[in-house]
Design goal:
about 450 residues; 17 helices
Amino acid sequence: MKKFPKDFIWGTSTSAFQIEGGWNEGGKGKSIWDDFTHTPGKILNGDIAEVACDHYHLYEEDIKLLKNLGVNAYRLSIAWTRILPRGYGKINKEGIEFYSKIIDLLIENNITPWLTLHHWDLPNALQEEKNGWLNSEIADYFSDYARICFEEYGSRVKNWITLNEPWVTAILGYGKGNFAPGRRSNTEPYIVGHNLLRAHGKAVKIYRENFQDSQKGIIGMANNCDWREPKTNSVEDINASERALEFFLGWFADPLFKGEYPKSMRENVGDRLPKFTDEDIELIKGSCDYFGLNHYTTMYAENANGNGYEIDPHANGGIFEDERVILSSDESWQKTTMDWNIVPWGLSKLLEWIDTRYENPTIYITENGAAFDDKIEKEEIHDDKRIDYLNSYIIEIAKAMRKGIRINGYFVWSLLDNFEWDLGYSKQFGLHHIDYKTLKRTPKNSAAWYKSLIEKNEI
């Protein structure tokens, strides 16, 4: 049995675009994902998220699911365009009130809200009028939006995440082009990443100078990273593994905790990698009160000696000609429906890497979970594979904690099966099944298992 501290945080995560629906209701503006999903050929099966899980209308029911689940925390994101329909300018009071009601209801049910300010759904007006994350001024638009959220919700919300997975915004949105806004470039991702970091830094500065002392909250970022295991014991592959982690997690975490991009990125990317000003470094370095980590899978990494190798955009790699790492899998590894490897020990290795590189930060696992093709039988879903996945990864967290790594919380992705971005509704990640024709919530065995884990505080 693995015992967890009594104050350990057990939660689930969601994102606004994937669950809310109500895409043009309540004064909401259009996001880049609203535009992207309505573009033919962009989303599998032509799926759209106009309704999604209909959380916009069914949030009270969903919070009952959270209450029954027994979690003590819930991570949700705010749709920027519900607060500021154009991303700037006039505030939408209906949007403010929508999230206020959710926050109040969570607190009434003894569930601590964790708010993410940006989970990829940039206002479309900022993309069309201001060139989105490629414009350095986007940092000011974001920090202005963040200030509104701090003012409106900060007396009740004590846990803030500025950005979710900026790597995804940069690489999949501006590098590979399979995510909104659908751009392809080997230069733009680095500009976007730079502006995302600056936006985070400016928002944190506003929070710390104007709100943190009185509101007594914490603020950070949720970065994603998969473990990269050296393919062989050769020096070249060991270095390739380290380089892959630096291009993936170090890209954003090094500036946050060290004040500079990783050396491998500065050397390999050259002039295409923007440089921080002294003001940038002052804003960004030390701007996280904790280390937020989204983790799902592991791959082998080997050194690439030649040019022209194109990786799968879903394989979570970097820009090949810069990173120069070939990713692969072990044939013995089981896989999820997303074709992601199930390798629990990769999480504990990654946690040790983070602990060493960033000098023992407080860590929250802000996302972890697995997609499987579940089948309903008598309104129940027998999802033993998901239970096994969650159990095996949480055991690795317990092992890491016994080594002195400071892990204070764990959030399952996700509360609900939802709209899975460019894959539409074809993948199921949630603890609760959604029948998308009737929007009926069906409890799953994994939900009962997670509830039992929380009640016992051990596995």
